[in-house]
Amino acid sequence: MARSSTRPASEPPRPAPRLYVLAPAADAAGIAAQAEALRQAAAEADIAAVLLRPASGVAALKPLLDACQAIGAAGLVDGEAALVATLGADGAHVDAVPALKAAVAALRPDGIVGAGGLRSKHDAMTAAESGADYVMFGEPDAEGRRPPFEATLERTEWWAQLFEPPCVGYARTLEEVEALVAGGADFVAVDTLIFEAPVAGARALAARLVLPAEAS
Questions:
Q1: What's the CA gap between 117 and 139, in Å, rounded?
Q2: What's the alpha-carbon Rg for the chain, to the nearest Å?
Q3: 123, 140, 158, 172: which could join 146 in a potential S-S bond, CB 3.0 to 4.6 Å?
Q4: pTM of the full predicted structure?
Q5: Interval 17-39: pLDDT, tens
Q6: d(CA 189, CA 176)
Q7: 168 forms bridges with which residues in the sheet?
Q8: H/E element, 92
Q9: C-beta separation of 124 from 155 below 8 A
């Protein structure tokens, strides 16, 4: 992925956004269920990446990482760059610029490093300048709280117009997915939209991951 900070003045049409699935923290049985849900969903929609949360220990994540590899999605460890090599994951997703810089130093040149928990536009720009492969806006915290969607959409539109590194926008509803696609998100992050009904949810998402010009 390109890491220059500003978007070129002239560029080819962007591809349709892809899905970035946020897997909830779960016990071993829950992770096994998530792995099966991913396999079902991937038959209906294009899943680019999955966020793995190591709440139940490293070994419990293996079925989910195996599912990522089976469907061709990047498996990214949430906040634990040190576990990437242990798990054989594709990279890490971290909050805060100091953690990002440490992850970049540890995982380059082969690993993916993404940045979330970005409280301001300045934080997002600093993350890109520090080597983030992507920035994520609007994702919920550990308690499920998230910024107002209007703020997420505004941040996504701002980023898409000015900067080259990909941006991920979090959506909780199908209507929010449509708004982020129109707003220029490169990836749309979802959780319950996949895990509550993998096949039907993925089909509904695939129908909305279409650029406005293509939909007409």
A1: 8
A2: 16
A3: 140
A4: 0.92
A5: 999 999 999 999 999 999 999 99
A6: 11
A7: 136, 187
A8: strand 91-95
A9: yes
